[in-house]
Each structure stands twice: as structure tokens, then as C-alpha cells.
Amino acid sequence: MNLSIIIPTLNEADYLSSTLQCLRQNASFENHYEVIVIDSGSTDETCDIALQLGAKLIKSETKSLGKALVLNEAAESSTGDVLLFLDADTLVPVGYDQLIDAVLSNPRVVGGAFEFALDGSEFGLRVVELINRVRYRIRQRYYGDQGIFVRSQVFKKVGGYPQIGLLEAAYLCKNLTKQGKLTLIKKEMKTSPRRFLDGGIYKVLAGDMKIWFLDLIGISVEKYSESYWKENELRSKS
Q1: Strand partners, 6
Q2: In terms of CATH, what superfamily is 3-237?
Q3: Rounded to two decimals, what is the model's pTM?
Q4: Which of 114, 151, 178, 205 has the highest local Cβ count within 10 Å?
């Protein structure tokens, strides 16, 4: 297996170094992966860190809400037969590459994701984890902070990430299930809890649950995408 790890960034200097170092330290296979950092206009040291730690850097000119287009752009430049999409503030578990390889030894499996976890001790974060774990076990729609992985040919076949402002990862998973089986690897991808701590754990969780519910009953959530990504961009600059 040759793995292409794709990381979208915007002012992620505080987190990117740890994420990239963790990728190297926790890999089971040597020289079987590439890291592509696709940056959307960082004004901090993000790009320098990416280059210093051996990642391939793409400076995207895409100006759109959400991550779908930049992730698709990076995938076009990848060389691996398997893609792993990773947030810049997410730490992979030990042996993540071997775990993916083992899962994909089953030809019926087209991709999957890891267990969602937040890096923090607050009780409210455990509530968030629990609710999310129940959610994706029922609907099997994973999110970007779970380290979604997919066979590159299948990713191309479904047209990559759908060009929507919110829930692009969930709808990618929906499309992938039409091509084969998705598998949940029950090892934790540990993500920074900054979004919940900065915005208030239960307030952010309530906003997320509103979006999940509206999508569940078939109501478009696109009108919420601008405010969602504006809040995230402001946090990345703070």
C-alpha cells in the first residue's frame, strides 16, 4: 500500500508540527507514504513548518466555503493508491498505516475512518465523543476529524468530495457506500477540542446537532455554511 496523507491548512502553525511528527513516529511502514499539505492562505508559519518537516506543499488559490474543493485539488496531485484525509490538529494512533492496510486487504472494503476522540479532560468533551460515536454508528457517515481513508480509484469514481459547504465528508461517505463497504477502525484519532472550548462545549454541540437533525430530515444546511466557516477562520487567526 502506498498512502497519500492530505492535510488542509489555514494558520495551523500551533498544531501542524505535532501532527506531522506524529505521522512519522506512529507509522509502521517506512517510505510508504507521502504527506501533502494544501494551504488556503496562511499568514503564520504553517507553510514553513510543512516544508521543514518534509511535506509536499500546495498553495491553493481556491476561494470557496468548506474544504471540499481544496481536498479534491490535493487528491489530484497525490500518487498513493490509498488516500488519508487528516485535519491539521489531529494525532494519528500508533500503527495507523498498518491498520488501514489490514482493513483494505478485504477487497469489498473501499474505505473507512477511525474512532472520534477529543484531546482534553473536560467532562463535556466525553459527552461530545459519546454522542458522535452513537451518531456515526447509526448512519455510518464519518467526519474529517476521524481520518477518513479511501482507495484512490474509488475516490475518483465517486467524483471526490461533493462540492458543498457543509457535511462534505458525510456525503462522501454516503457516496462511497454505494461502491463498497466502509469500516470503522476502533483506534482513536485524537483531535484538538479548541472549537468546543472556544465556542462553549454545549453550545457548539447543540449547533452541530441542529445541523445533523436538519440533514437527517432532508432539509438543506447550506445556508449555515458561511457562518460556520467564518467562525472557524476567526478562531484560526486568534
Answers
A1: 36, 85
A2: Spore Coat Polysaccharide Biosynthesis Protein SpsA; Chain A (3.90.550.10)
A3: 0.93
A4: 114
End-to-end Cα separation, the chain, in angstroms: 39
Bridge-based pairing of strands 56-59 and 109-118 is unpaired
| Confidence tier at 32 by pLDDT (50, 70, 90) | confident
For 47-101, the pLDDT digits (tens) are 999 999 999 999 998 776 678 999 999 999 999 999 999 999 999 999 999 999 9
> How many CB atoms within 10 Å of residue 94?
12
Which one-letter amino acid corresponds to residue 198? Answer: D
Least confident range from 3-12, 113-122, 227-236: namely: 227-236
Beta bridge partners of 82: 3, 151
pLDDT in tens, 154-166: 999 999 999 988 9
Handedness of CA 68, 74, 77, 80 (dihedral sign): negative
DSSP secondary structure, the chain, as one string: --EEEEEEESS-HHHHHHHHHHHHHT-SSSS-EEEEEEES---SSHHHHHHHTT-EEEE-----SSSHHHHHHHHHT---SEEEE--TTEEPPTTHHHHHHHHTTSTTEEEEEEEEEES---HHHHHHHHHHHHHHHHH----GGG-EEEEHHHHHHTTSS-S-SS-HHHHHHHHHTTTSEEEEEEEEEEE--HHHHHH-HHHHHHHHHHHHHHHHTT---GGGHHHHHHHHHHHHH-
